[in-house]
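Input record (one chain):
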Amino acid sequence: MLIYFLSILLLLIGIYGITTKRNIIKTIIGLTLMEYAIFTIFIVKGYKKDAFPPITGAEIADYVYVDPLAQAMIITAIVIGFATTLLLLSFTVKIYQKFKSLDINDLKDLKG
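The corresponding structure, as predicted from the sequence alone:
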């Protein structure tokens, strides 16, 4: 139960970082914290106490196994989240090179 509380706390810190900070880097960090909080919630949801890994080599029906679907989904989501974070950081570098500022309020000249 404590891990759920800590995950929700991490999620709330990420939401706070996204909604209140005006620095692009701090906003990206808030988004990343939110991602990791969601990942933690999914992994903990797939955990079973005193369970075995899903690959044991023995096919015995009496064993309780950990759900491998949550682990597979989260490893895929981690890779996608990492790529998204790298893309956001590369956009941030280009914005800084052009405007010499990372403050969102200073970027009024952005046009489509």
